[in-house]
Amino acid sequence: MDNIIKKIKEYYPVSDDSLNILKSNFKQCFFPAKAIIIQANHLDKQIYFIEKGITRSYILHNGKEITTWFSMEGDIACGSWDLYRNKSGFEYVETLEETLVYSIHIKTLNNLYKSHIDIANWMRVLQQENFLKLQDTHISRLILSAQERYEKLMQEYPNIFSRANLGHISSFLGITQQSLSRIRATY
User: Fold this and answer.
1) 74, 57 contact by CB (below 8 A)
2) Which site among 33, 110, 124, 135 is 20 to 30 Å from 118 CA-CA?
């Protein structure tokens, strides 16, 4: 559970006691590559903490998969509507390689917020950071060229091309796979 604990502590100084209580509520799960762990239109009551592996979140639009997010070691994966609105969401989350996660029920985590302020503050900071990443991605799509978006992705996630396929990456960047291949050929 080293990757998860390291990432938690990067965001907020959660006490060892609170970490132990959080860990005691985790359930370990292994998923093979290409497993759908969160399904659109189905209420999912779990939050998945990724110890090893990578997932992608995506939506379906006119039958086409559009990648919206990648989650890697130390990150969480969950449906946002499931987490915040207690409603089935619009997102799918798929593993891209064999993935080890620790899950916790949303209700359990919400109860831990009430009794452990450091856990609540850690999640608040994590959600703030995710919001800022999402905002940055949105703004990048509006103002950066395809090549600049590619360069930014390579800088932030240098190993993404060895872990996700070009179709998923091009979808995330908002460009065609052919455009991505042309851009990559110049490097």
Assistant:
1) no
2) 135
78, 44 contact by CB (below 8 A):
yes
Alpha-carbon distance values, 127 to 31, 33, 97 (Å)? 25, 26, 25
Type and span of the H or E element at 61: strand 55-61
In sequence order, the β-bridge partners of residue 92 are: 58
Q: What is the pTM assigned to this prediction?
A: 0.92
- Point out which residues pair with 59 in neighbouring strands: 66
H helices of the chain, in order, are: 2-11, 16-24, 80-85, 106-115, 117-143, 146-156, 166-173, 177-185
Neighbouring C-beta atoms of residue 4, cutoff 10 Å: 23
Question: What tokens appear for 15 in the block?
Answer: 């006490």
Residue 172 φ then ψ, to 5°: -60, -40
Label the pairing between strands 92-95 and 99-105: unpaired
| Residue type at 19 in one-letter notation | L
pLDDT in tens, 141-160: 999 999 999 999 999 999 99
Residue 186, helix vs strand vs coil: coil
Cα 176–Cα 180–Cα 183 angle in degrees, nearest 5: 140
